[in-house]
Amino acid sequence: MKETMLQGNQIEIKKVSSKKDMDAFIGFYCDLYKDNEYAVPFIRFDEENTLSKERNSSFEFCEAEYYLALRGGRVVGRVAAIINHRANEEWQKKQVRFGWFDFIDDPDVSRALLETVEQYGREHGMTEMVGPLGFTDMDREGMLIEGFDRLATAYVIYNYPYYPQHIEALGGFEKDNDWMEYRIKVPEVTPEKFAKTAQMVVLMQVGSKDDSLAVAHTNDVRKSHKGITDEGLYKLYQEGDRRLVFSIQNKIAVKDTLFNNRPDFDINAIDEIPFATEGETVAAVTKVEMDAIVKKVSGVNVPLFEAKMPWKSILNGMNHQLVVNKVAECEDQGRYEGLMVGSVTAPNNNVGNWE
Hints:
- With 355 residues, the protein is α+β, with helices and mostly antiparallel strands.
- Helix content is 30%, strand content 23%.
- It is built from 11 helices and 11 strands.
- The strands form 3 sheets. Strands 1-2-3-4-5-6 form a 6-stranded mixed β-sheet, sandwiched between helices.
């Protein structure tokens, strides 16, 4: 597709073709929403991986191009044109998707971007345009039509109120469905029922999708064992086939992890660091620092968490110089200066991140 320009409004549509263009494409969302108190910026590393034709496994069955809308050399909009061949084949459709659809409040800009996606679709034999959608249902999709005055969640699309107004003004689009998002307030005291009946899901990832030989071997196994499930792959793995790539979700009763053989255990004190408040001084950090996110790893959304306690809190009240030396040793080695399990930033090595 050639670059186009709407002369009357001086809107140039430019295909992303360089790292500089991609940086502008990814960065436009933050520029557009930098003064908005409700929008939550996306993790740039995740955006780069998702949009990468080399790193996103969705490109095994998808093709896409990314476009910028420019006016006077300044980015005023962006859009991705995507064709998911697997979905089209499954649903007997000829659809081109538009995603990463953001723009200033100017109908000429939004129209130019969608016309670009439409042209891309026609050139590839498509007859319908749908969106906002990503490569698969694991990506962000949809358009916010209510709740513009609520803080967005980490992996849900937030957009200005004028977005749906532009879509309606353009005409030709029909609403497919409504998705509802609910905000749940976590109680300050854990209900007794939760402690007795709740389960937690543990995801076990075997192998890496970055290992192309292992992925190819797994595909061959799936073909030779028609209908095999991930549980079936796990059985083969236990029997000795270590070249498989798959994941399994297991449910574990919370009472068996937190309360096993501990009838006096107080779950509401689980984040308190022992000894942090004892002795002559109180440590600056008295509770375990915990965080949890959902991050795209090798094209798959994976729940990640981390929990950490600094040595200054764990060793509170002990010989001050020894504590200082312990912290300095960690800093010299580039490690967290305390005990830590998991990580929401460092790559996982499939055996866990422990320090």
